Amino acid sequence: MITEKHVALNIATDSPQDAICQVGQLMVNNGLVEPSYIEGMLHIYEEFGPYWVLTHGLAMPHARPEDGAIESGFVIMTLEQPLNFGHEEHDPVSIVIGMSATDQNKHIENIQQLTQVLNNKQKINMIMQAKEYPEVIEIMNR
């Protein structure tokens, strides 16, 4: 379940790396990951590119459990301005969902939990346009 502390709205970023660092810090602040997890996410982005831009406007950065996952869960951040992550089909990104999983099974469970949002363009658009935390929380917890 997502709460207000798991959400950051209209965050100013100047690069994909900055967005990854900011969503990672939100994860650290919520006790989901250790700071080393942020480095893991950055390393994966640098090595494999923007494969985690899953649908138009939405990126879901994550790292491996051994990179510092403490708890399985996720946070959500909307960007002040859409940002190109380098994905040919799904750029620009307006929503960044930081995900942590303590093992492969939890990773799959997180993806399944988010599928209702990821597969629903209307929900994604509503999150992009949200101005208040309760709007995002309601959409994510439906």
UniProtKB/TrEMBL annotation:
The keyword Transport applies. It is found in: Cytoplasm. It holds the Pfam family PTS_EIIA_2. One of its GO terms (cellular component) is cytoplasm. GO terms for molecular function: kinase activity. Coiled coil: none annotated. This is Ascorbate-specific PTS system EIIA component. The gene is ulaC.
